[in-house]
Design brief:
The chain has 99 residues and is mostly helical. The chain has a domain of 54 residues. It contains four helices and no strands. The model has no long low-confidence stretch (mean pLDDT 93).
């Protein structure tokens, strides 16, 4: 599995503001943990929506006769292989005015 590293830029002022509410030591580990937790939470919410949406779609598709995987990776691979699947950019592009 690939790891993707993103860089977050905070000004000194922004760091001080965050440190008012978030535990943060001199090594910034507290902020790093909070940022990672925020990303993990977003991924978890996106997964829940994807799982709910596509389980319903697959169950209601009379032409779909395979089993629905309970394993997250296999489920995502199945969804991505569906001809009707569109990611967020593709959905937004398809719904934009003038398309």
């Amino acid at each position: 599995m690939a790891n993707h590293t993103k860089t977050i830029t905070l000004t000194d002022l922004q760091q001080k503001i965050l440190s008012n509410d978030l535990y943060n030591d001199t090594d910034n580990a507290g902020l790093d943990a909070w940022i990672q937790g925020a990303v993990d939470g977003k991924i978890n919410n996106c997964w829940k929506r994807m799982q709910q949406e596509w389980t319903t779609k697959l169950m209601n598709d009379e032409s779909f006769t395979d089993s629905i995987p309970s394993n997250q990776e296999e489920f995502v691979n199945l969804v991505l292989s569906q001809s009707s699947y569109q990611n967020r950019k593709q959905r937004d592009d398809a719904n934009s005015i003038g398309s």
